[in-house]
Design goal:
The protein has 238 residues and is of the alpha+beta class. It has two domains: 98 residues, Ubiquitin-like (UB roll), CATH 3.10.20; 131 residues, Fumarate Reductase Iron-sulfur Protein, Chain B, domain 2 (Orthogonal Bundle), CATH 1.10.1060. The chain is 35% helix and 14% strand. The chain is built from ten helices and seven strands. Strands 2-1-5-3-4 form a five-stranded mixed β-sheet. β6 and β7 form a beta hairpin. α3 packs parallel to α7, α7 crosses α10 and α8 packs across α10. The radius of gyration is 20 Å and the shape is elongated. The termini are far apart.
Amino acid sequence: MTNTIEVSLWRGKADGRYQTFSVPQRENQTVLDVVTWVQRNADPTLSYRFACRVGMCGSCAMTVNGRPRWTCRTHTSKVVENGRLEIGPLANLPVIKDLTCDMQAFFEKWQKAKGVFAPSKTKNDPIEKILPGSPPRQAADAAIECINCAVCFAACDTVRWNEDYVGPAALNRAWTLVNDVRDAGNRDRLSAVAAGGGCHACHSHQSCQEHCPKALNPTASIAGLKRRTMQAYIRREL
């Protein structure tokens, strides 16, 4: 521990400020390790959110040097610039305190896009066989690993400009359900994502794809929704 990192952490709410701490630099240290060190050794009032620490839950997402990231999977050696590190809350979400954001708006938009599975059968019906190689299953599989960490939401320019836009995570989820042959809610779902603030509000900047820690491509999912909703409109299903 011969070296230290000058770490600037956001303190307070939206009208807060950055506060600087000197943190020991260690081998294989993550950004979440840095935040935890500050909370345990320098200021126990620091608020932040984390759970699994291994890239499974996504709750530790923060803005690191201007870029939204999972802090538990980001090593300081990859992001420290001239011995300095700036860590803030995710953008496009209300700040509760320090590095903790209010996720309510994010999940409300997820619900607005009808991101809930609507079963077409009951438990008494036979289990439906779905071929893994079928085009709908492959389309769903390509997008299904989202864990709602909100990194794409924080990176999205359209979310920043348009408060009605539901965001890439919600639309990505809708796309997986549109391609699930067991789902019975597609008429309402396509109507929801075709409405104002839905898939057609996306500007296709691909920030969501660039920043997604799971290497998903929400832009491709949104493009799929644009095609599917246009087809439904032409067929007078919307």
